[in-house]
Amino acid sequence: MSRDTIFQKIRSALEPIKEKAAHPGFEEAMLISPVRTAGSPVEAFSRNFTTVNGRVMSTLEEVIDLLRAQNHQVGYCDPSLMETLGRPLADAGFEVRTEYCRENYDDYDFGITRATGGIAETGSIILDDAHTSDRLAALSPWVHIAVLSRAAIHPSVPAAIAHLGSSRNIIWVTGPSKTADVEGILIEGVHGPGEQIAFLVD
Fold first, then answer.
1. Residues 6+ positions from 195 with CB-CB distance below 8 Å
2. Burial class of residue 166, CB neighbours in 10 A (0-12, 13-18, 19+)
3. Tens place of pLDDT for every residue, the chain, 202 residues?
């Protein structure tokens, strides 16, 4: 097989799907846990996100206290969030960069990016590459601060799926990165952030 043929097959595989398959038919109520979705979507999300060792915050003081307590000094901030979060953190003494240098990923203690949405039922954050300035800045620093609009929290998984859109790469983050060995010992922060923060905004 020639080099041109191989690359043509790769290019055609990357083209957007012209017509998505219809979602399978199901009764939504059969799939949703009434216990996990009790209360408002924000209340359920906060409860379930905390259960999986995520941290829900809504004030800059909470973020500053955490970063200082863990001695994190250098971080990345999505340029669109610089005025609301990045600049106040810089004024508080942190080094905040708006460009993420992939060659020096170990330099970043924290990353601040936008979350596209949240799922109350599972306590998950939705990261969509189409709306996230740099995916690696969300996945490689020890602390990831996902800025999440309360209005973008979906009550359930089916509701979130209905709003996915046509993005090619969407990640659901349910608390800090986790893994377990054969003895069942849970370790956090191995393949991604060890601290996952949902910073709720109106």
1. 55, 66, 70, 142, 143, 144, 176, 189
2. exposed
3. 788 888 888 887 777 666 767 766 666 666 666 656 778 899 999 999 999 999 999 999 999 999 999 999 999 999 999 999 999 999 999 999 999 998 888 899 999 999 999 999 999 999 998 888 888 899 899 999 999 999 999 998 888 888 887 777 888 999 888 777 777 777 776 777 889 999 999 8
Structural domain spans, the chain: 32-201
Distance CA 121, CA 138 (A): 22
Q: Are 156 and 32 in contact (CB under 8 A)?
A: yes
In whole angstroms, what is the distance from residue 78 CA to residue 54 CA? Answer: 21
Q: What is the pTM of this model?
A: 0.80
- Residue 199 pairs with which residues in a beta bridge? 57, 147
Q: What are the two backbone dihedrals, phi and then psi, of residue 105, each rounded to the nearest 5 degrees?
A: -60, -25
The amino acid at 83: E
Tokens (6 digits) for 142: 């020890």
Element (H, E) at 77: strand 74-77
The amino acid present at 186, given as its one-letter code, is L
**What contacts 174, CB < 8 A, 6 or more positions away?**
49, 52, 54, 122, 123, 124, 125
Enter the tokens of residue 184.
Answer: 């069942």
Q: What is the DSSP letter of 176?
A: S
Domain 32-201 has CATH 3.40.50.10420: yes
